Amino acid sequence: MAGEHEESTWPLPRFHFKVSFGDKGEIAFQEVSGLDSESDIIEYRAGNNANFSTVKMPGLQKSSNVTMKKGIFKSDTALYDYFNEIKMNTIARQNVTIQLLDEEHNPMFTWTLKNAFPLKVSGTDLNAQNNEMAVEEIVMAHEGLIFEKA
After folding, report:
1. pLDDT per residue over 68-98, tens digit each?
2. Which one of 2.30.110.20, 2.40.160.10, 2.50.20.10, 3.20.20.70 gives the CATH number of domain 9-37+63-149?
3. CA-CA distance, 99 to 26, in Å (whole number)?
4. How far apart are CA 122 and CA 16, in angstroms?
5. Could you tell me if 52 and 111 are in contact, meaning their C-beta atoms sit under 8 angstroms apart?
6. CA–CA separation, 54 and 28 (whole Å)
7. Is residue 57 helix, strand or coil?
């Protein structure tokens, strides 16, 4: 009984996750952001309605672009190679899976980006006065976010 209580008492840490790119396989990232969705609001009021207010209904759903950051390693050009596959909308879209893992490396929650493709890739900032690691980022556009609990 105490185990059940302890399990619900502590929130999951957000630092243990993995990202898989369809046929590209798994790539280790330092940070993932933009895992959100929202619905537009449709407001409607019939002209003969006795109430002087609108009715609000859910409209189209939209999701943010997802940004992922990772350290740059010698001879690792995976993000630039992936981005360079875009040629006049000929890139093969693929699902991207982001999984939050427990202490035994099992997925607890999964976010799937449907029909994703790279929108932007950015290299690191360069500054001779800092001793930070070099970080690159990729921004992924997609056609919807699916959330699942394992």
Report:
1. 999 999 999 999 998 988 888 788 899 999 9
2. 2.30.110.20
3. 11
4. 24
5. no
6. 48
7. strand
Q: Which two tokens stand for residue 23?
A: 């046929």
Rounded to whole angstroms, how far apart are CA atoms 68 and 62?
19
- CA-nearest of 102, 90, 135, 98 to 114 is 98
Per the listing, tokens 């933009």 go with: 34
What are the pLDDT digits (tens) for 108-117?
999 999 999 9
Supply 55's token pair. 């009715």
Q: pTM of the entire structure?
A: 0.84
What residue has token string 């427990």? Answer: 102
Tallying the residues shown for the chain, one arrives at 150
